Amino acid sequence: MPASPTRPPRRARPTLLDVAAAAGVSKSLVSLALRGDPGVSAETRERIVTVADHVGYRPSLSARALKQGRSMLVGAVISSLDNPYHTEIVASVEDAAETAGLSVVLAHGSRERGRLGDRVHQLLDLGVDGLVVVSSWVPEPVLVAAARRAPVVVVGRTAEPVTGVDSVNNDDEHGAALVVDHLVARGHERIVHVNGSRRPAGLARRRGYEAAMQAAGLGGLSRVVEPDATALAGLLDDGTTAVFARNDVEACDVLDGALDVGLRVPADLAVVGYDDTVLARRARPRLTSVQQQREVMGARAVELLVDRLGGRAEDVHEVLEPRLVVRDST
Known about the structure:
Blueprint: H1 16-23, H2 27-34, H3 42-55, H4 61-68, E1 73-78, H5 84-99, E2 103-108, H6 113-125, E3 130-134, H7 140-147, E4 152-155, E5 166-170, H8 172-185, E6 191-194, H9 200-215, E7 223-225, H10 229-235, E8 242-245, H11 248-260, E9 270-275, H12 278-282, E10 288-291, H13 294-309, E11 317-320, E12 323-325
Parallel strand pairs: 1-2, 1-3, 3-4, 4-5, 5-11, 6-7, 6-8, 8-9, 9-10
Antiparallel strand pairs: 10-12
């Protein structure tokens, strides 16, 4: 019977001692240089970093965690991966976390509240130092219980502030008013709002739309429809001249519907989205949309989490002002 092939020995992971030997310096100097200690000259640090890259040294996350008594991990929970808004927020969270010396572990709940709750507990069981929840679907009791174990920051709008949980979101009412004011200034009166959400942000955008229509003297023409094909087909055939969609995904559905029935955007129908995601910039015509300062929201979420880890006890709830980005669709 032929002998089974032997596996080549696994190459040992380079250590600080390997870097020190290759650079001809002490292990302690390598450690100081790689963590950016100001006592190490720029020339020496550059030489040690170059040697470390050459030998393939990478700092051990587990060793650093053991030394600092923390995992150095941030858990990020999102509703789903199919809306660019969520993934763009997570990208900004990851950038800010990296700057703070942290790594991000991502979990998504496929738009199921129960699964989202499970993901929160699973990340905490992994030992993350804190959670950034980019979802309004996580039940409040789950958030409260999670905050007893680790700092939690919600990026988005909750129905009411959650005790022990920080939050960062945008002023949805103001964002909706910006849309209505823009469309009214363009001469539109029959402005329909596409919004089937019962979540806090969706309800707030609906309130903002209705209040702005009332303020413009168009309250009697206010109309909110569900984002389904039948409703969209109907509004495109009843004299509507402008549509404000709850988010960019639904705004793109409106653009598709308009194309299907031969309406020109914006000549026959103006369309506005919300979130100003990559979809708004890639749609044709390019989509006017409300920008939520996603980079700022993600960065602030990490800052708030780090502050909590540093001992801050009081809750912080920040509301950022959105702005309207006008493009070809209006």
